[in-house]
């Protein structure tokens, strides 16, 4: 299994790139989004890869992150989803969007990928919904900050509600200054699971909070929003 290729970028074509590593040129198929993010030919680069084996064909598919690679692997485990279709889904939605679409049952988003019809989109959602939280957590590896505890979230929320009104402040505040949206979602998911919520329910709540357009993309804000959604009605 070839899990990662690091070397010098030789060229970029319409649907693949060639990376030379240790004197060997690897043809790696990737989504347009991944190809557009590669450096200029001649510069060093690296991609995580998935080797797809067929009776008469060997193909490498490349991804910038482990989460995207794992989504591709899971998608191809669904009957009717080939490596090209899986690449189209992840390439269109991105790893965070793929996870959000699957845990929230948004088959319309999945159907936007070329070659994915309504029945196949529904099958993808049904078969992968329980597996999605694990892959979503991969998105925060390498940029993960400690997730706030429930008591910290409650204290912060109470303080904000009881403090005297001050001048308006910028709405979003970065976690530790530089955490990505994916890392914030992964942190929030991990915190909720550690608090005892089922992983599938926590993933849905975090995904919906991240997609509502109102919740700042920080771990604490996502946890607060998810806790409100998970609270008994």
UniProtKB/TrEMBL annotation:
One of its GO terms (biological process) is DNA recombination. Transmembrane segments: none annotated. SMART domains: HhH1. SUPFAM superfamilies: DNA helicase RuvA subunit, C-terminal domain, Nucleic acid-binding proteins, RuvA domain 2-like. It comes from the Bacteria. Residues 1-64 are annotated as: Domain I. The RuvA-RuvB-RuvC complex processes Holliday junction (HJ) DNA during genetic recombination and DNA repair, while the RuvA-RuvB complex plays an important role in the rescue of blocked DNA replication forks via replication fork reversal (RFR). RuvA specifically binds to HJ cruciform DNA, conferring on it an open structure. The RuvB hexamer acts as an ATP-dependent pump, pulling dsDNA into and through the RuvAB complex. HJ branch migration allows RuvC to scan DNA until it finds its consensus sequence, where it cleaves and resolves the cruciform DNA. This is Holliday junction branch migration complex subunit RuvA. It comes from Albimonas pacifica.
